[in-house]
Amino acid sequence: MDLSKTENGQPASTLRNIPAVEALLNRELLRELAARFGRQVVLEAARSALDRLRQQIRVDPEAGFSMESLESEIAASAETAAKPSLIPVINATGVILHTNLGRAPLARAALDHLVEAASQYSNLEYDLESGTRGKRDVHTSRLFGRLTGAEAALVVNNNAAAVFLALNSLAEGAEVIVSRGELVEIGGSFRIPDICAKSGATLREVGTTNRTRIADYAAAITDSTRLILRVHPSNFRIVGFTERPSLHELAELAGKRGLVLMEDLGSGCLVNLAPFGLHDEMPAVESLRAGAHVITFSGDKLLGGPQAGMVLGKRDLVAKIRKNPLFRAFRVDKLTIAAIEATVALYLREDYAAIPAQRMIRASREEIAARAERLAKRLGALAGFEVTLVDGESVAGGGSTPGQILPTRLIAVTHRSRSAQNLAEELRRNRPPVIVRMEDGHLLLDLRTVLDDAQEAEIARAFTQLAATAQCAE
Ligand SMILES: *Cc1c(COP(=O)(O)O)cnc(C)c1O
């Protein structure tokens, strides 16, 4: 009888030699790890390391193990587990408001104000004049009023919440007229018909996908109609034989029939961006001037601020939305208010260069070409790589209309033995990860969205490492 095996044939001795998790945790190195990462993290790492070891011994009874290798395995996984999983990445795609990459990076001034306001007590809801309770909206209303002429403003969690809350407050149980050309889906799950239904309003579709006339709106109005909704088609564009009434015409109709005219501006820019190539974005002030009673837009799209949804417009309508009990569920915290306040203040100062999203939109092709040339030279000198510069296009992204393009200069990279796919994968594994653009199997870098020299240097470093490992592999 083989005493070294248990009944089911397992090597009793090796399995028996595996330390108990408690004993393992009492070892010097693991105690140090627990002090750094917390006992829970180290305990979990130790348990799964031991599980893996047992599994291994069951498969290969002769497999040995050393305390040192066990410890270093635990240390490595504890370190990984203790690290945040939300980490900065370098966006070399040229998509400025890349929703998957966090949309707009914040301005320095916004970050500073956020830290200042959030690390201490603040007058978030406290009126310093009277010493009594105040409203958190006053901080942002003041600035939006000055910038757009809006009578009142509210901030909620995002534009989806803004649209929902406005429809729920202003049109619950009533009819809302929307053009069939504007019944869009944005991103994963924001669909105008769904939002409308959830808000308790009944959607009344008018016109056709490509053409809707003012007469279509007029004919659809009944006693139950409360609101006309205009929606920015965002990531969707109808071209060719198209028609829709101007906002002005809609305002006239709404005024005549006693209806609310609401516009979901989507990206919502605060300044005219047509000179930079973005022709389809109506600045908030224009929409209000044309006669929209309520407008909504995102904080982290073209505005370049934090995730938020703005509701601007007539005092009585905004007050009605503010009174909705759901406002409480959608309101933003002091971090967001601080970041918006500081970002909007930069617009008031016309300091667009200080807002990353605005700076990227305004960067000229020549400016980007100069940077691309510099980086291409560094990458081209690396063994195995071939680097060329090609003309291309950046996009605003984040639901801005397609077809509005920003001319750019791209770095196209190929490697003699590795596929573009493989290179892209390796670059994602870099820390910080470098996210590139893939087009027809080609790897492209668009420096429009690469924030600064430090990020360019980081890209060069990532490629240098790639060149070294590729050479070893060959
Ligand atoms: C992006 C967008 C939304 C959703 O905005 P979020 O801030 O992402 O919630 C709603 N409507 C339009 C027209 C949009 O473009």
Walkthrough of the structure:
The chain has 474 residues and is α/β, with parallel strands linked by helices. Helix content is 44%, strand content 17%. It is built from 19 helices and 16 strands. It has helices at 12-17, 21-25, 28-37, 39-59, 67-82, 108-118, 138-148, 159-171, 192-198, 214-220, 247-257, 284-290, 315-323, 327-330, 334-348, 356-362, 365-380, 420-429, 453-473; strands spanning 90-92, 126-127, 132-133, 152-156, 175-179, 185-186, 190-191, 202-206, 225-231, 260-266, 294-298, 309-313, 385-394, 406-415, 434-439, 442-446. The strands form 4 sheets. A 7-stranded mixed sheet has the order 4-12-11-10-9-5-8, sandwiched between helices. A 5-stranded mixed sheet has the order 1-15-16-14-13. α11 (247-257) links the parallel β9 and β10 (260-266). The radius of gyration is 29 Å and the shape is globular. The structure holds pyridoxal-5'-phosphate. Residues 158-160, 163, 186, 190, 231-232, 234, 264, 266-267, 298, 309, 399 line the site of pyridoxal-5'-phosphate.
Tell me the overall shape.
globular
DSSP summary, beta strand count: 16
- Mean pLDDT over the full residue set: 93
Major beta sheet, strand line-up: 4-12-11-10-9-5-8
Strand composition percent:
15-25%
Question: Keywords for this structure?
Answer:
seven-stranded mixed sheet; 17% strand; 474 residues; binds pyridoxal-5'-phosphate; 44% helix; alpha/beta; globular; 19 helices; disordered N terminus; five-stranded mixed sheet
